[in-house]
């Protein structure tokens, strides 16, 4: 497993619960525990890469922040810009970013119990280019286990 860097102050569950209420979803517990400590943070070596079996070498830069004052990637702002304004399905909830500013999402379209992890190429809409929305894995824990350092 790669080493992570905390870039924001640790938050408590209530902060995440407010975002969940606003979005009408419930994040998986494994993600909640990780986000409380590492929101706005990421791999210590700037970025990591993902090996999903099908795709190898996709980058991962950081988790979205729960701090509305964050200079970039506040989770609700990313939701408004990359989901609402881009007219993506409402049940895609951003949680992380790659080095090209493409986002990783929890995909709640199949229900609220256990969302899948997907990645979206922001330069294309999945209605026109279905391959721009890529399934990565079933759980956040699996996602973390797929991250590796190129060093």
UniProtKB/TrEMBL annotation:
InterPro entries: Knr4/Smi1-like_dom (IPR018958), Knr4/Smi1-like_sf (IPR037883). It comes from the Bacteria. Residues 10-146 form the Knr4/Smi1-like domain. It holds the Pfam family SMI1_KNR4. This is SMI1/KNR4 family protein SUKH-1.
